[in-house]
């Protein structure tokens, strides 16, 4: 049931983004983001976090740079959830997955360094 819901969401997202014939791949979505300069509309701390997750290979540098950015994301999401105008905590739900992704990338980079 959850797979069907996820597929339906992906199909709707694909239609909204103009990928009518197939589900969008990660590369296709990133190309679309770059072509529309969407990254320019993102807050600086999120843009920096994106660069760290995509391009950084030094494990110590990753942790040192990403920790304050994740703290900023936590603070921003906590501030938005305490606002009475905020209907949902949109960015707050990504803190844990981003932290997990950073840990996985850190482990991968450490394993590559010591292999």
The secondary-structure class comes to mainly alpha
Tell how many strands the DSSP assignment holds: 0
**Count of runs of 4 or more consecutive helical residues:** 5
Distance between the termini: 41 Å
* Helix percentage range: over 70%
Oligomer: single chain
Describe the 3D structure.
- It is a single chain.
- This protein is 70% helix and 0% strand.
- The chain is built from five helices and no strands.
- The chain has helices spanning 2-16, 26-35, 44-55, 59-82, 95-114.
- Helix 4 (59-82) runs antiparallel to helix 5 (95-114).
Key features?
115 residues; mainly alpha; 5 helices; globular
A few lines on this structure:
The protein has 115 residues and is mostly helical.
Write the layout of secondary structure elements.
Layout: H1 2-16, H2 26-35, H3 44-55, H4 59-82, H5 95-114
Helix pairs in contact: 3-4, 4-5
